[in-house]
Amino acid sequence: MTFNEFNRPFTQAEMAAMRRATRDAGGILSETLALIRRIARRIPFAEDVLALYYCARDPGTNRKVKWIVLAALAYFVLPIDTIPDILPILGYSDDAAVIAAAYAAVRHAVTDLHRQMAREALRDMG
Length: 126
Fold this sequence. Notes:
With 126 residues, this protein is mainly α. 68% of the residues lie in helices and 0% in strands. It has one domain (3-125). It is built from seven helices and no strands.
C-alpha cells in the first residue's frame, strides 16, 4: 500500500458502513462477537476486545465510555483499516493499537466481571 492509498477518500461502501455503524450500536456489538468467534485464536488481544464488548453492553456503563468503546469496536469490525486484516501478523496490528488506546482510556469502567465474562467466552469458543 502506498502513501497515496492511505490518503485516498473513502469509497461509497466505506462511508455507508461507517454511517451504519454509528447508527447501530447493537450491530457493532453483534459483528464484534461474530468476528471474535472467527479469529479469537489468532489475535492476542481477543480478551481485551471481549472485555470492552461486555463493558459496552453493561447498562451501568456511562454513555461517554460506551461511545469510546463502540468507536474502537467499530474500527475493529469495519472493513476500513490502515493495514488490511488479511496480511499475516501485521493485519491486526492497527486494530490492536486502537483497542489498546480505547482500553487505556476507559480501563476505569472495565470491571473484573467484564474481564471474567471475556475469559469465559473465550474458553467457550475454544
